[in-house]
Amino acid sequence: MDYQISVRKKAEADILEAFEYYESCRKNLGHDFLLCLEEGLNKIRRNPQMFTNKSDAFLSIVIPTGFTM
Questions:
Q1: Structural domain contains residue 56
Q2: What would the mean pLDDT of 38-64 be, rounded to a whole number?
Q3: Which helix (H) or strand (E) covers residue 15, if one does?
Q4: pLDDT value at position 65?
């Protein structure tokens, strides 16, 4: 069973800021970041029990930043 994920406006702003930062470091690095983010969100959607509970309504996941600049 897949679960629904919602991203708060503040998180969307943070994601955009991170995207712009990575793009300023290297062309398409921001897109690589978004792919990693999408992969992480899909993992949460498929199996939320694998991740850290921050509260009853929130889970957290570390987005890998192993791509090189």
A1: yes
A2: 77
A3: helix 9-25
A4: 62
In sequence order, the 6+-apart residues with CB closer than 8 A to the CB of 69 are: 22, 25, 26, 29
**Structural domain total, the chain:** 1
In a domain, 69, yes or no: no
Strand 52-53 vs strand 59-60: parallel, antiparallel, or unpaired? antiparallel
pLDDT of residue 20: 96
14 is in which domain, residue-wise? 9-60
Beta bridge partners of 59: 53
Give this prediction's pTM.
0.74
Q: What are phi and psi of 53, to 5 degrees?
A: -80, 120
